[in-house]
Amino acid sequence: MTELRDTNRAMFWRIVRRLLGANRGRLVVMLLALGAGGAVTAALLNLQVDAKRRLTTEFRTFGPNIIVAPRENSVHGGSPETLDESLLRRIPQEWYQRGIKVVPLLYLVAEAYKTGSDRRVPLVVAGKGGSTMHVGVNGPPFESLISCDVGTRVAAEMQLRPQEKLILQTRVREQPCNFNPTSATGGPEDDQVIVAMGAAQDLAALPGRAGMIELTVPGTPQEITNCIATLRQLFPDADVRPIRQFTEGEAKIYNRINGVLTATIAVVLVLTAFCVMAAMTNVAIERKMDVGLMKAIGGATRRVVRLFLAEAALLGLGGGLIGAALGILLSIGLGKAVFGVAARPRLIVYPVAVGLTMLVAILSAFPLRRLASIRPASVFRGEA
Amino acid sequence: MFFRLVGDSFGRRPRHKLLTGAALALGMGVATAALSVALDVGDRLAREFRSLGANLVVTPKADSLPLEIGGVDYRPVNAGAYLPEADLPKLKTIFWHNNIMGFAPILEVPVQSWTPASQTAFAPKINNETTLIGTWARHAVAVPDGGTFLTGAEKTNPWWQVDGQWFAEGNLECVVGQNLARKSQLRAGDIVNVSPKENSSPAVALEVTGILSTGGVEDEAIVAPLSVAQRLAGKPGEYRKLYVSALTKPEDAFAKRDTKTFTPAEYDRWFCTPYISSIAFQIQQELPGTEVRVIRRVAEGEGQILSRVQMLLWLVTLAAMLAAALAVGASSAASVIERQVEIGLMKALGAGSGAVGFLLAAEQLLLAFVGGGVGYALGIVLARWLGEKIFGAAPEPTLLVFLVVLGLAAVVTLLGSAIPLRRASRIEPAPILRGE
Lengths: 384, 436
Hints:
The complex is a heterodimer. Chain A is of the alpha+beta class. In chain A, 53% of the residues lie in helices and 17% in strands. Chain A folds into 2 domains: 10-58 and 253-380, no CATH class; 66-242, no CATH class. Chain A has helices at residues 2-22, 24-58, 93-97, 152-158, 197-204, 221-234, 244-285, 288-296, 301-339, 349-365, 376-380, and strands at 66-70, 83-84, 101-114, 121-128, 146-150, 165-169, 174-181, 192-196, 209-210, 212-216, 238-242.
């Protein structure tokens, strides 16, 4: 009994092999159609996962999206309220690895003048801390000459020329600095002079204090909401709020883009599957002769159908393996073209794409069931 | 005879032709849908990006530097320059006036505010030092060429949410920032008195129509009609800052060049493209004495993301078209391969290779046009559905897509059949007819 089954099985595979090899042209055509489907499936799936992540990073060209500011009630003797810089230590270390940027800021009003000029211009000086994990509570020591980023409107107002020095003066101290021109931003920076945090703290006589902390958090709208919730727990005494202009706008736009991308890719995948299926069925229908012959020499309909299904599955596997590999390579290239960074290939995409290709191949062999009704005699007589 | 042969071929194997046609139609449907979406997505997303608000800011050229920290301007009211409100309708006369989605003038006045309720015999009145922001909420601007244009903070700052109602233009009404409202226990319907801090204009009693939440400095301020702010500041018909929200085309390398280096032709091209820099330039021409600056934070992020998404969709489209082309090509190749017997017979009856090739190609082309047409219709329906689902607006079907799809269908079927056709032309009739 087992022997017979073994022989049967050997015969089965032998026929499948012959079916595949019988017509080289047809084999190439089928592999081409299936491979193309597999390649597109793999490329689009991989790209879709990657593009979403990249887009959230792209959104950070808008700059910071969360602000931690002192709560309005915590009054500090009349002057604008400030936060202790050591609060920054509460931010978990792994956040920095996730690409979250944290910048403490301190604003103050100072008068600026050029050396050798009497004209004093009142302006806003912004102290900006580096986005680092190492926060000096006391700030860097006072330096005699620092570099400052001067907003375009300030530079125009003061008629500053390159390499000129300007002096910032407050009630407590004078700070000479080197003029470092910036390009126009259209924001408040155009009207400000930006210096290092330590220098601003010295000018304001507020050592170790920050006016607010700006965070740049990449991620989906959901991740940003979670981040705000965590920050509220970390800083119970401060006011943590999203910059709604950007968080809300972004959420809307992200959802739209996500929708377009997902829907387009879904439509493309479904239609491609149908297209491949139609092409495959077209080829399969031509197999009347084969079916007629098999039935004539005593093949049961079940076995004949099983033969063709095995053939289709093998074709799907072959086409899928080649196509999906090509598709993943393609998506790496596409990712590089769009985002400048190669898309990271996701291994899960490969088996999924191969599986889908096989599924399409098997489904497209199903019309062969109709061949069960073929009468061998009429096939051999050449009747259609 | 030729047409009879073609007609015969279709009539004799209807299912076969139907399947090849279906593959074609589906493939071209993919191409149409993806193309339509990709063509349309830029405009639609650009509109979505306006939810980020204004991307241009207009300030007086001769203005002094603002001393603004945390929303409080430490600059005296009489310092700096102002701009005339009467000039604003001119914004809708620039070349790209249809791309101006909204604008809102701003005049800020440092004020003291108190509520009548807090003014009892025992308790001193709550005296808040705050800023009154005068602006338009929903203002009808008479456009010089007739008609009106509805604009205001609703358009330039769409993330501002009012719990209650916006104030009505011309009334003594205001909305109060949520933090200030909490501090002074103000609710919609209450009265708040404001008087300017720095001049002797009389105090004004404003009715609170809503509580404003913005997530920004406005949460600490009072927002009132521009006319109220002008009255308090003693600057009738003037404003200090104008926010403009404009639909733009992402800046490319060309737009980033210095306009001074342009040739006249390049200058015309720049002027007639809705780059943010050219719109800024046109506004500056219309409003003399102003400085128009691009809010880089908004404009650059927008440009970058828009071009990325567009490129991504183009690549998806390309991949889709490629897959469709391969599958369709394979299908037509198969249909030629399977017809060796027929070809052999035709040649045996005296048809030349050219005639056979021509006949088969004509058949394929006919199929391509029919399948392509059906596919186009299918794709348009799909693209409409997608557009409506995602953006609430369907993309317009364009002739361009139709032509591209038909052309693609023809090229793909012909290319797909080319190799088997060449092989077919080398067929020796005798072995085929013998059944070998």
